[in-house]
Structures are given as C-alpha cells and as structure tokens.
Amino acid sequence: MNKANILNLKIFFTFFILRYFFVTLSGFDNFQLLPDTYWYFEQSKSVVNGNLNLLRPLFITAPFFSYLQALFIYLFNDNWMFFLEFFQIFFSSISGVYFFYLSKLILSSKNKSYISTFIFCFYPLTFWFTGTFSQDIWFQSFLIIFFYYFLYSLKFGNFKYLLISAIVFCITFHTKSHILLFSPFIPLIILLKNNLKIRLKIKFISYFVSISLFSTLPYGLYNLNVNNTYVIGSSGLGGTLIQGNNEEAYLNHVELDTLTQEQLTRFKSVSYKIHEELKPKMVGKNPKEIQELYIKHSLIWIKENPQKKIELMISHLKRFITPGISKFWHSFDKWFVVLLLSAPIYICFYLVIIHETYLKIFKNEKKFFNDNIWVIFLVFSQIIFTVIFYYSGRFRVITLEPYYIIYSIFILDKIKNLLYINREKQK
Q1: Which residues of 308-329 are buried (b: 16+ CB within 10 A; e: fewer)?
Q2: 72 contacts 114 by C-beta, under 8 angstroms
Q3: With a threshold of 0.85, does the pTM exceed it?
C-alpha cells in the first residue's frame, strides 16, 4: 500500500471514529436535532408504498434524500435506521478525505492542509447532523466533493474531472436546491481562469451546463406530469419567499422581545398564521398555482411594508456575517461555546478576503482572485438567498463553513511569516 492510500485511510478513520462516537454517545436520536426529519420519514414511507410524489404544502422536495431513505427502508426493513446511520457516517468520512485534497489544492501546502482538515474534523458544527436523517450531511459532503473535482479540473485543464464535477453538482442540487443560486456563477468562474484556452473554456461550460440540464429531466418531467410544474432540483420559490416575507416572519427575526408564549411555541417550528390564512385560497389549485399565490402575497406584504422589509434584510444580513448561533433561541452556554469556536474562523476568513481585495484594488495583484473567486461567488450566492428569503444558520454551516475553515489558514501563514521576519530583524 502506497503512502497516499495510507494517508487516505488515516484521514477516513479519524473522521469515522469521531463521528461514530459523537452519534453513539451524544444521546441524540436520528430525528430530534431537526424537525424536518419527521416529514422526510413520512415522505420516504410513502415512496416505499409506491407514491413517488414529494409534494409538500410549501414546496416539492429535492428527491435525493427522501428516495435514498426509502431505499434503505425497503432493503433493510426493521434495521434500516442502523444501516442509514452507518452509511451517513461512512460517507461524511469520505468527504473528509476529499476535504484534505481540496485544502491542498487551495492552500498549495500539505502541512497547511493537515491543519485545515484537523479543524474541519473536530469542528462540531460541521458534523452535528451526521446522524440526523435529513439532507444536510449529504449536501455538505457532495458539495465538498464537487468543489474538489471542479477546482482540480480548472487548475489542470482536466476534462475528465470537469465531467465528474458536473455529475456531482447535479446530485448536490438534487439534494438541497439552494445551491442553484451559485450555478450562474460557474460559467463565469470558468471564463475567468487565465490558464485555460478559450476553446477549452467553451467546452467546459457547454458540457457542464448540458449535463446539469439533462439531469433535471427525470424528476422534472415526472413533476410536470403529476404536479403541473417542471422541477429543477426542487420547487418552492413561492413557499420559500412567503416563509421570510410576512408579518410574523418580521416578528420572528426583528421583534423577538415582543413575542408571546404562543408565538414562541409556533415560531420554533416556523409555523406562521399566513399559512392557515392562505389555505382557503389554495383549494382547487395545482402546485404551480399555489407557488404563484405564495409569491403574490409575499410581494403584497413587501409592497405594504417596505420599511419592515428593509429591517428584515438588515437583520438577516447581520446574522449571516456574525459567527455563532442565536442567543435568543439557545442557552447562553451553548451560544458562548459556539461563538468561541466559530468566531476565529469567521474573523480569519474575513481578514483574508479584505486583505486580498485590498491587494487586488490597490496593488493590482490578481492571482488570489483568479484562483479563488469561486469562494467569493459562493458566499455572494448565499447572501442573495439570505436577503431575498431568510437567514438560515443551518444552511450557512453546511454550505460555507468548510471553506471558511480552509481560507482561515491563510492568516496562520501570514502570522508565521511576520514572526519569521521579526526574528530575522532581531538577529
């Protein structure tokens, strides 16, 4: 066995053992950390019983996890939870190996990649949902794997890896579709790569877009036939918009101190009165028309409450850039521990971006931007989601924090260089 395979096994088993012990010893079952798990389970049971339609009141679910869970229920009967839990731990550990190589690709240093991988392995927010039966750990893992193949293909002009990255990206947005906000930036990222000839760039873009669109056909055509709407990954623009743009959403995010006990109870599960108010208007409408209804009433609220919408946007953006979790909804101890763990990573990431932006604007140093513009686009795509729809700490963790960890390592390198320079001056 060569050194690379030994290293891969070491990383894999370190991730696996830590995640296995967390899932086993934490005391949390496979459902309690996330309320969504219960309706995922109901959907998967329906799939096993022959109902492939993943329609919900607010949206049509992205298919990967619900169908995968259904497969485990079908194959393993009463033991399905044991096998699905094991497989989630297994797959998230594989993503840990890919994270190491992604770090190495970005940082151009094996030693710095060891550090970032160590942090990612033991950083609790990134493995919190490993044993939870939801889309989250799958999405995070697929996205890491996608970025490894995608960035490798761009750095070395590797067409085979470009094809693999496109396939993995398709699985990723069929797992959790908010990543589609990043998809328009992918052709732009390819075009901005100076090391690729224009013909290769066009080839990369053409194949990536074609594979992505082709992958939507089975689920898209099925929903067009059953639900009268073509689904790209999932369908829920209106449902997502109404969740973040109504009077009680404003109270939930901006006027927390005014909430009654009854509202506190409902808001924990994001249950707003607008859902009940719109039910009579939804009678006899198909899913496409229901989404249009949600959009209509979201826009009515925004038009009637422009100041509140601005306050909501500011609140969401503030929470997006602030490390940690909500102090209102969590205990002080939990809030403080998470802040203590996440703040250094966020601060270092922001310092890197600010520093490199300064070099780009005032020193015309383009290398960082040419090689790493993708992460800026990724963050920007999630800012778009946050401002238009709503802030989700869970989405931020699984979509962005692995890459914040990698880029925070640049600061350690800067500190090391400064210490070296100071030592040299003192000699």
Answers
A1: bbeebbebbeebbeebbbeeee
A2: no
A3: yes
Tokens 């390592």 correspond to: 409
User: Does residue 60 sit in helix, strand or coil?
Assistant: strand
3-state helix, strand, coil in the chain (%, to 5): 75, 0, 20
Residue bearing tokens 């959907």: 43
In single-letter form, the type of residue at position 354 comes to I
Q: Give the pLDDT score at 257.
A: 83
| Three-state SS at 232 | strand
Q: Which amino acid is at 247?
A: E
Token pair listed for 369: 């931007």
Q: What is the pLDDT of residues 212-238, one digit of tens each?
A: 999 999 999 999 999 999 999 898 889
Q: For position 156, what pLDDT does the model report?
A: 95
CA 237 to each of CA 151, 177, 385: distance values in angstroms, whole numbers, following the listed order: 29, 11, 11
Cα dihedral value 189, 193, 199, 204, nearest 10: -40
DSSP, collapsed to helix, strand or coil, labels residue 386 as helix
- Name 208's Cβ contacts closer than 8 Å, sequence gap at least 6: 162, 165, 166, 169, 186, 187, 190
**In the block, which residue shows the tokens 């049971």?**
45
How far from each other are the two terminal CA atoms of the chain, in whole angstroms?
A: 46
Q: Could you tell me if 138 and 24 are in contact, meaning their C-beta atoms sit under 8 angstroms apart?
A: no
Torsion of CA 170, 174, 175, 177, to 10 degrees: 100
| Structure-token pair, residue 144 | 């890491």
Of 65, 177, 61, 136, whose CA–CA distance to 401 is shortest? 136
The tens digit of pLDDT for each residue in 261-289 reads 888 888 888 889 998 899 999 988 888 89
CA atoms within 13 Å, Cβ hemisphere of 45: 8
CA angle 214, 45, 397 (to 5 degrees): 60
Does residue 103 register a pLDDT over 70?
yes
pLDDT bin (cut points 50, 70, 90) of residue 367 is confident
352 and 408 in contact (C-beta within 8 Å)?
yes
Count of other CB atoms within 10 angstroms of residue 252: 25
